[in-house]
Amino acid sequence: MTWVGWVAIAAGVLAVAAIVIAVMVYREQNSLHRRLEAGTVSPAARGLAREVDEGGTMVAFVANPSKPEAAELREAVRRTAAELGVSEPMWLETTIEDPGVGQTRAAVDAGADVVVAVGGDGTVRAVAEGLIGTSVPMGLVPIGTGNLLARNLDLPLGDPLSALRIALTGRDRSIDVGWLRVLRFESDVHDKVAEAADERPADPDAPRDHIFLVIAGLGFDAAMVAATDPHLKAKMGWIAYFVAGIKHLRGDRTRVHVRVDGERSTTARLRSLLVGNCGRLPGGLTLLPDAELDDGWLDLAAIDARGGIAGWAQLFGEVVLQGFGVSTTNAPKIGRIDHRRAKEVQIVVPAGEFAQVDGEIVGRVVEVAARVDPGALVVRVAALQPQTSGV
To answer: 92, 113, 173, 231: which has the fewest C-beta neighbours closer than 10 Å?
Structure first.
């Protein structure tokens, strides 16, 4: 059997392992749901509430009401406050029209000492955007599908009380954020043609910056996100992305023009181009091994997969191995991932491609620009453990 065959078999085994992990996570989430439904206020919850109240901390929660765990957590917070005879913290819910930015700014204006995002990656992004430019820290109670930032901050998943304790009593850490600006949507090109023919006016909306805390991307990854079944995602979590990705494994490579930090533009044919602030993904995968949340850089990954499924199998195996610190630089390849760093990057995709930020589709784009905003956000993370000296 050729090395391609062995890599394909290895990737298949790893894919099965990823499915098993996803099922275990799904079962753990169901177990969490049952614990929250029990309706009890634990001594740990009462102790945490008393600790925050005695410290005079003003806490604001910005929660996604579509998550069942959010309502259950609010009820636990309400019961705890009532038992202790203290005022209930601010609880602001997101809406379709405002996914959390306005609520966060209202909490800051009201004097909140910490704003806790209760939800998935979309809620976390919105709360983060509302906190940019302030010194108010963001806490996270991750109850979404990917929980990407929480994974990269080593926050507990599936344990809201532990996450809440860190959000309220942990240490502050400044991290970078990324911004993706769409300069031209694919529809803008057609609009200009139509405008020239006096068919309809061009879109008057100005370019808008989209915040990302983990990874923005164009190509295969964004198409996978766009094709993900929301019902399957609600039932099985991030494994739904793998199912959607299978549909796009045989897609065409796209011509991409990239300009990094004002240098001369380069052209390549790729399946995906990622711009990352950090690189840890669900399932234990590390896509950008050198990316750090507070290094002041964006990490780029240009992904090219030839040979169909065999090429993707080789790349998947490479990503898994690099997560363990194993280099595959000298191995024969039919797919490749090229890495480099940047402060700013401009990307042109003449044929148009889907673009995403932290798993949220921003549309089909032709031209985008990304930049890093160093140390722009303060987050709450676990306190450092005191070091003990050996005897």
So the answer is: 231
